Amino acid sequence: MKQVISTEKHPIKLWVDQIEDSAINQAKNLANLPFVYKHVALMPDAHTGYGMPIGGVLATKGVIIPNAVGVDIGCGMCAIKTNIEDMDTTELKQLMSHIRKTIPLGKNSHKEKQDESLMPQRGDVSNVMEQLYSKALCQLGTLGGGNHFIEIQRGSDGYIWVMIHSGSRNIGKQIADFYNKKARQLNERWYTQVPINADLAFLPIETEEAHAYMNDMQYCIDFAFANRKQMMEKVKAGLLEINQGNVVFDDIINIAHNYAAWENHYNENVLVHRKGATRAYKGEIGIIPGSQGTKSYIVEGLGNPESFMSCSHGAGRVMGRKQAQRELDLETEISRLNEKGIIHAIRNTKDLDEAAGAYKDIDVVMANQKDLVKIKVELKPLAVVKG
Ligand code: 5GP
Ligand code: MN
Ligand code: MN
Predict the structure, then answer these.
(1) Residue span of the signal peptide, if any (predicted)?
(2) Are both 237 and 95 inside the same structural domain?
(3) ipTM of the assembly?
């Protein structure tokens, strides 16, 4: 840990050394909420989010806060190790074109509904969720926009890996917005004594609304897992085709970094919100992506109780999307990727929002969390498709 900041109510524990004042102010607002358990933890990739910093971990007693989960509910990473030792440019380009043919990118969805047996069981979801279901059937196995990506990497273990970053597409966003609005209305009606910021509106866990949110959130998490898995199946099929069926894959690693769940910490059951944070129980395998053109990592958790057994979910942004498009130099960012021989998709200034220069230095981020995780495999990018 790098630093502790105290507030009137609860301290903030930071593993980050490069962070904007606005993110610290958000953490202070959080730490001053009465239902915070122990402290607020900021991972080394933390930066300003909507209401709560991304890269933040918040444990609560008695309430759930929709905006402490994040809008892309269940967003996360999956990765798979192959037994392929090398891929040349022709093979990489073949795979990229297979990906573009079989996986809708950006805002696109499939034209047809996907097989319902590939979707998670709905169980006890609300009407709001039910109404989103038929659209979700076309969104299963689609990447989404922004910083979602599919990357082919070379591992320090000598093998080719595939990594995918994606979430619950539009359904998670709809659910997040619906319940944040609902929480605001309820807070204004009943809980005006709590010094809340409308962006941190909460639902007391015994309420019907909290139950409905928890069920719908869980469905979005399950959907996001299935979404990543479906895309990974498509990439696997592409690799098998290129290698005449001769590829062996390890088990898929599939983890969420935007969610809330009941967990036991310091011998109490609390709701842990991870908003852009990875669970890192002792021995647990996690995935920490760097950025387009830098290294990513497969890690093993150390189970540090002070971060509520969590670590970073990436490198984290140093600048917003618009700022990156304005300030980064296109030539510099392109040659940075070209020099490493990476097949990438930076073509014009608009694409600079996702350039490596818009993110923190992953080496520093990893050095700042040595007490949270240990590195198992280092992954260097060979080719990347962005959402
Ligand atoms: P978020 O979940 O907050 O949207 O971002 C996850 C993390 O993914 C970012 O903090 C960044 O470190 C990482 N990332 C973004 N784009 C890329 C990419 O193209 N390749 C890799 N390997 N990592 C990326
Ligand atoms: Mn996402
Ligand atoms: Mn994400």
Answers:
(1) none
(2) yes
(3) 0.99
